[in-house]
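User: I want to check something. If I give you two sequences, will you return the structure for each one separately, not as a complex?

Assistant: Yes, each is folded on its own. Here is the first sequence with its structure:
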Amino acid sequence: MPLRSAHRVAQIKSVTGAVSSSPHGDAPGAARLIRFAGLVMPIAAVEVPLTTYAPPLYAAIFGFDLVTIGAIFLIVRAWDAVIDPAIGVLSDRTRSRWGRRRPWIVAGAVFFVAGAAGAFFPPRGAGAITLSVALFTLYFGYSMIATPFAAWAGELSGQYHERTRITTYVMVMTALALLLALVLPSTLAVRLAGQPVTQLAAMGAMVFMLLAITLPLGLGAVPEPPLPTTPLPRLRVLETIGVVVRQRLLLRVLVSNLSVRLGQGIRTALFVFFVSVYMGRPALAPALFLYQYLFGIIASPIWLMIGRRIGKTRAAVTGELIQMMINFGLLLVVPGGWPLLIALTTAQGLAQGSGNLMLRAIVGDVSDAHRLDSGHDRIGLFYSVFSLSDKAGLALAVGIALPLVGILGFNPSHPNTPEALFALKAVFAIGPALAHLISALVIRGFPLDETRHGEIRQALAAREGTGAISPQP
């Protein structure tokens, strides 16, 4: 780095570190961040079991085919296009003695519990409509928790790398939740083989336990920033859409993240089928998935260090290109080729959190840039559409991958031809590889680096000091 540039970065760090490390002057400590990040565990524990293990169980319990299951998930998650931005806008505008985010998280927990009860403890004879209603309620509560939580996490600090540190805690707690959620299926697959109703119920019990533990601990872990002194202006639906569409930097982050989630979702949706049918070892599918997430726990701290050294954008691009190569490598796996599959799964675990971590942290930086330009803090809206890109990627993955392999001849309930098995492997490998490549290409060269973000924070600090806009975190 040139001497002048290095001096500029150091100067910016000294100013932004002094005025914006957190809303209250000090970065939250590790213990408080662990409690706060624990709020993400129940919703993290729901996502993968529903998209990975629930489809085969629903097929066994209700007799649904893969096309029907894929359609149900796709239709239910399509409502998020309305729900997520609405919650983001409303939480930004909420003014209460408990803050902007806490009331939404508490209310969301109620819907989350009601929906999870229907999804994991379905009544006998339930059909596609009953299951769809339960999933809609669950994901509605999911959105009411996830979107305000993400905005709250983004508000805890305005410092470039501190945001990544906070997000790292969230990602680690997410990985721990997935680990807990996957330990159970790996055990149940052996002990409760042939009992899909009991397996589904046990997963639901795990989700309820996590919510009961983490909700009271997380809500009081860190304070919310002070409420804005000036309310946001009311915006109609089209005006809200216009705010998002005009944010070109945000759109790049959204498309990149959607591609990340699409790749991860295709791999997740087909993982059990690949290990169970293509590799011929159904009992090992949960254990291998669990093995991958063991490495995911240590992946986020590693990528935090990489991001500090080379910046968020370069770290995101590097991680996505590595994942592309890993997924293309799956084309070389043959039945019985366990050493190569285990090696690729290990690498996948170490690389999988890179894009998720960096892109999520970048959203807060983009919100700062918008705030400087407009004078309005819309971090909740921005994180809501980011969450929407998360869900859209995962929903598209399930809605595309399962019907596609079915159309290509794969059927998990009947013997498959070599051509059908190869089609399963091709979609499992090539789909995620291309998605991760697109993500890297979209975010490559992103202009909001540490230096530019520091300049934005300096300008915000100077303007807030004159009272031009309300003090924000």
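And separately, the second sequence with its own structure:
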Amino acid sequence: MTPDDGSLKEAWSSIPSQREVGIGLERFTGHRMERILSTVAAIGSAALGAQAMLEAVTRLSSLDPPRLGMMLLVFGPLLWMIVVCLIGKGIRPAAGTFAVAYALALLLWPIVVDRSEREPSSQPWIFFLVNIGVVAAMLAFRPRVQLLWALLLPILYGWVRLVQGDFKQSWWISTGFDVTFTVILGTVIISLGWMFRQVAAGVDEARSKAVEGYASAAAASAAEEERVAMAALMHDSVLAALIAAERAVGERERTLAVAMAREALTRLANTEASIAQEGSDAPVSREQIIAELRRTLSEQGVDAVVEERGAVAAEVPGKVARAMVLAARQAIGNALAHAGGHGLHIIADSAAADRLSVTVLDAGPGFDPDAIGEDRLGIRASIVARMAAVAGTSKIVSDADGTTVTLSWEPS
């Protein structure tokens, strides 16, 4: 039984992409810590809020509109903050609203309160919510504003109480104790919140680095497996080209064998390049090749001259351009390794619209190309074979005055 196209599409769309995997994990511990803080804040706010409301209702002897308005101003945002903290959504707006509403309520307290009540040792119901205002600031504001709120609300409460008591001496002792207690407790709350968030951020950062390291190791393992598979494929391609060349008897068979050999050499010469670097075989301009060579020099930290010659802006096939750039990079690397980059000079010359040559010169001590060991493939494979694979030519001249590597290509 064959599944229909709709089922296949649905199954395919349900597979997460590599970019989608891991989204939200970069702050996993941070989100969990925020959830814990909001839940604890909701429980504490509910307990102290119930105590404050019970005290306010007990002292409400009559339906006094100013006092009722004060209670609505305080307990309305407080109830909103408790609900959203338990739900876990919209915490910052609700907490910020209560923090501001409570500060406003403190400012209005001397106007609303009954001035005939003069008991300095008895705290009003609004006192029980001072540190709840600090907790709201911890959930809603940045650290500096949190600290400001932890100092501002107790001081504002103390000023309100002194105003209520006409700044008499008997009010200073009890009010000073209340302010000191709330300042210390508020500072501890802000410090604990900051510490827990920093610990969570550190755990998330360590997890992110571990995931990146694991991803890099997995990518390296996958690349190694792909390289082994590519090597087996290249081995088969080269053998097939050799067999075709051996059995070729006519012109058509010889042409086919040459094409097979050229394709095998091209793939073999570019096995170290990634799939992204392979790209298409669209024509590439001389300016793009020069830009790649200049980028190579910049990555190596070398300040060398890249000279353009020829009035014609040449274009070469993409395979040829990649081969020339990779071969030129190898020549530049050799000049840096063996000549120290002395006199490094690069020339890109185009005598026609479809012809291009790249020359890499240096003023090093030179070397004998024939004396290079068979196991050293820096020149044979990365330069000579690479250019030969795209039907190009490479010429290396080296003596005591320096080394010149010329890479050329023109259509057959």
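Because they were folded independently, the notes below concern the second chain alone. The chain has three domains: 25-209, 224-269, 279-409. Residues 25-209 form one domain.
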